[in-house]
UniProtKB/TrEMBL annotation:
It is found in: Membrane. Residues 274-288 have a biased composition (Basic and acidic residues). It comes from Emiliania huxleyi (strain CCMP1516). InterPro entries: MCP_dom_sf (IPR023395), MCP_transmembrane (IPR018108). Keywords: Membrane, Transmembrane, Transmembrane helix. It is a multi-pass membrane protein. This is Mitochondrial carrier protein. The keyword rRNA processing does not apply. Residues 269-314 are annotated as: Disordered.
Length: 346
């Protein structure tokens, strides 16, 4: 029970920090995500898509769907980071599981992602169709029923694996290999590299998912593939996506660590406050015992820093033997499965 309590506390800290980081990202990088989804659906180049969107409505056009995105983004990232931080803490507490590959955490995210699919449907069609997006979505619901809001749910489950496993594998692996020199620059580098690997693996599924989700009539994955072709499936919007998600991953990684540090530092200060309160309320014997304990030699600086520093070991547990060479072929093979599509992060 103590292990479960600690894992839950650590998961809450990671999840709150992750949700706050994603909230900041949505506001700063929404215009890039709109451009990417528009490319996925329409097949334009980056500059062409930017010009087209600007002509449709200027700067506000890039922020169509910001409402659903502000709901979906923090909720989805909260589930991702809470599961990753909490489950790794649970596994690390047991010696027999300490060196096992941490592929279990994200397997619990699938029902949560499906729950968010209607929000994602509203966000994506607003990004692609602009002001007419919701009216077109209503017309699609009239033709296909309310179930069209969950189009791509099966793909979303597979996409969680394809998109997130390489991300966390890359982050965990690089976090264990790269020395901590400049902390924030290091986290930024880890976030960018993780996002680039993840996007390369899952771009084809994102194209299918967006095409299926924004079609004005209900279509299947096979029909979406026929519209795009192999070239469109693999490369449509990929460069823009890598830049967009690279900036997003970079920003999220830094903000997440800052938020988690702040949460844990606050907990340490609160614990010290409780100790001082007990000392002040204790009798003479308690105060003498406490004063005597203060005269004891303090622990070495390295031990103190380890006891107060954030749990960096959470993300250092990937064995080098399970590098990206294992995750890339698996992800690419799943990308070629037409029955799957990707739930976008933002």
């Amino acid at each position: 029970m103590e292990t479960l309590r600690k894992a839950g506390k650590r998961a809450l800290g990671g999840g709150v920090a992750g949700a706050a980081a994603m909230f900041c990202q949505v506001g700063a990088l929404m215009w890039m995500r709109t451009t990417v989804n528009f490319q996925y659906a329409k097949g334009m180049g980056t500059l062409e898509a930017l010009r087209h969107l600007y002509k449709e409505g200027g700067i506000p056009r890039f922020y169509r769907g910001v409402g659903p995105a502000l709901i979906q983004g923090p909720l989805s990232r909260f589930g991702d980071t809470a599961s990753n931080a909490g489950m790794i803490a649970l596994l690390d507490s047991r010696a027999e599981a300490r060196n096992t590959p941490h592929t279990l955490p994200l397997s619990s995210l699938h029902p949560f992602r499906i729950f968010l699919m209607p929000i994602d449907a509203c966000k994506t069609i607003l990004q692609v169709e602009g002001a007419d997006g919701l009216s077109k979505l209503r017309a699609k619901i009239q033709k296909g029923g309310v179930g069209v809001l969950w189009h791509g749910s099966i793909g979303a489950m597979t996409a969680t694996f394809v998109g997130h496993y390489p991300w966390f594998y890359t982050y965990n692996f690089l976090n264990a290999q790269i020395p901590q020199v400049d902390r924030h620059a290091r986290n930024a580098l880890l976030g960018f590299c993780s996002s680039a690997v993840s996007d390369t693996c899952s771009n084809s599924i994102r194209v299918i998912k967006t095409t299926t989700q924004t079609s004005q009539v209900p279509i299947g994955y096979g029909q979406a593939l026929q519209q795009d072709g192999i070239s469109g499936l693999l490369f449509r919007g990929l460069v823009t996506k890598i830049i967009s998600n690279g900036c997003q991953g970079l920003m999220f990684s830094v903000l997440w660590r800052l938020g988690q540090d702040a949460i844990e530092a606050r907990g340490v200060r609160r614990g010290r406050g409780h100790e001082r309160t007990r000392e002040d309320t204790g009798g003479p014997e308690t105060r003498r015992a406490t004063s005597g304990s203060r005269r004891r030699p303090s622990s070495p600086p390295s031990e103190r820093s380890r006891s107060l520093s954030p749990p960096h070991s959470l993300l250092r547990s990937l064995p080098p033997s399970l590098s990206l060479s294992l995750s890339l072929p698996l992800s690419l093979s799943l990308s070629l499965s037409i029955s799957d599509s990707l739930l976008s992060h933002a």
